[in-house]
Each structure stands twice: as C-alpha cells, then as structure tokens.
Amino acid sequence: MAIADRPRLVVGVSGASGVVYGLRVLDACRELGVETHLIMSRAAALTLSQETGLSVAQAQGHADVVYKVSDVAAAVASGSFRTLGMIVAPCSVRTMSEIATGVTASLLTRAADVTLKERRPLVLMVRETPLHLGHLRTMVKLAEMGAVIAPPLPAFYAKPATLDEMVDQSVGRALDLFGLSWAGVKRWGEDVAMPGAAQDEI
Length: 202
Description:
The protein is an alpha/beta fold and about 200 residues long. Helices cover about 40% and strands about 15% of the residues. The chain contains seven helices and six strands. It has helices spanning about 20-30, 40-50, 55-60, 95-100, 105-115, 135-145, 165-175, and strands spanning about 10-15, 35-40, 65, 85-90, 120-125, 150. α1 (about 20-30) packs across α7 (about 165-175) and α4 (about 95-100) packs across α6. The longest helix has 14 residues, at about 20-30. The chain starts with 7 loop residues before the first strand and ends in a 26-residue tail after the last helix.
C-alpha cells in the first residue's frame, strides 16, 4: 500500500509528563499501517529529554511526517487534508485550554481546532492531577465541542506486569476511539476472563 493510500492520524505531543504515550501511539500506528503526522510542542522537547533521554530527531523518527510547531501553513492546518482525526498524547492543561478557547497560537492547537470543526475525533490524553474547577470546566467545554477527554489511567483488570504494559493499554484504548484495534490492548471478555457465574452470588 502506498503511503498516500494509507489512513492518516495527526499526533500531537505537548509538554506534559508522559511523552512515552505519544511515542507509543506512533509505534502502534506504524504496526497498524496508519500514516502518522507528528507535531511536537517546544515544551515537549524538554520533557522528551528528561523522561526518555531521546533527542527530538530520534522521536521524530517514529513518525511518517513531521511538522514544525510554528508551521501554521502545514497540510494538517487545513480541513481539506483528510485524516482519521487527531490525538494529543500527552495533553497538557495549557494545550487543552488553548484548544477550548479556539485562540490557537501554534500548529498543534490549530490542527486540533481543525479536527473539531471538521467533526473528526479529537482525543486528548490529559495529564494532570488533582484537577481544580477551572480544569474541569474546560474539559466540559471541550466535551461539548466534540472532543474526547481520555486521561491515561491504568486498567488493573488487565493485570499489567510492567510500566510498558500499562502505557500500551492506555494507548490502545485511545486508538479504539478512531476505530483502530491494536494488539497492545487486553480486552475484557476476550483476553481477560470474566468472573465465573458464582461471582454473581456474592
């Protein structure tokens, strides 16, 4: 399959902790044959160095197409550029808030705004805790606009044995929202056995 014929997913990586989520999204999409279009914020480059030791160039090597965060004339800034949607992994509160206002100052948030206006899935893996009322109101506003708020939370029923397994479960569940089924996910009733009938009597 030629790269032009592959489904496309826009991947934003903000400066929040958890840059590994964005990297694993890129890796998962490569396994699934999905063309990735990566936008990293300036703060993401700092987080990348602190949390992984990778250079920006090494991280960009996980993607098919890479854009400068200042390139507001890039293909992904236009709704006529067809994609499956966009995921921001991880998504900082600043990025989330900028998307919610519609005042987009970078390609990352502009691409997210385009995704919303085109009624395509926008998945925000928000990384912050605890949340104050302003955060929660911003999330409500985004949900009302059509975004999906998908914090990367551990699924203990999947009995993860490593941090990588916990990351992969969250990434895979986020990709489910685009109709992409990745092998990194353990599914209830399929890979994970449901409790026996006797449990119903407890």
